[in-house]
Amino acid sequence: MYKENFHSHTKYCDGKNTPEEMVSSAIEKGFTALGFSGHAYIDAFDCGWCMSEEGSLQYINEINNIKNKYKDKINIYCGTELDYFCGKLPGEYEYTIGSVHYLNEGDEYPAVDSSLKEQQEAADRYFGSSLIEYAVKYFELAGGVCEKFNADIIGHFDIVAKFNEADCAFDTKDRRYKKAWQDAVDRLIPYNKPFEINTGAIARGVRLTPYPAIDIAEYIHERGGFFILTSDCHDAGKLDFFFDDALQMYSKYNIVKFSEIIK
Ligand SMILES: [Zn+2]
Ligand SMILES: [Zn+2]
Q1: Domain harbouring 103, CATH code
Q2: For the chain, how many structural domains are there in total?
């Protein structure tokens, strides 16, 4: 059984619940550890769903308080989910998730994970209408989250396929797509950091399968990479959403507990 989650959002960013509500749910589910990973402040542009500068400091303060309050029941960690375009952060965190939620073209930061429409508009504008070329650009950034931040966890590695269930928007067998994610994996592997098996989009009803796709997981595994399981939780009731199914689906691969490797 996998009784922990290190990818959790609260009202400090775009989650539904307070940190304390998340902790209660975790305890109810028999979790032994819970890591908070509020969306880190971005100074380059207003992302709308990230923590503010002041909110980041309040968040750190509150998580550290409840860490103490519940220390006999559960181990709580104060982390943050970085975006590729984060600059210097207000405050200190115990761990970071390295994620890409935006591309950058000129002064524009088109969002990767908000809708297929927004992806297609950016593809039309910057990539000759090709979602494959759009994805290639995404993986150039995603391959850099350890180089750039030395992130402790590699977040939702192929989120660019969020709206592409069963290849409905683009062909994931396209050799350019495959080369892009393989190159990104090759850049990340030397850092020896876990890739997420992330069930968040299933909880939100957008996908039927976790990130990363099985062929990507297989490649990561062949290269000596390993995984942690997370729910990218935005709703306290869904902290362990799809965990049992995901453990079965990815049972061939090395899935570890982040609580056992966090320093
Ligand atoms: Zn994310
Ligand atoms: Zn997240």
Answers
A1: 3.20.20.140
A2: 1
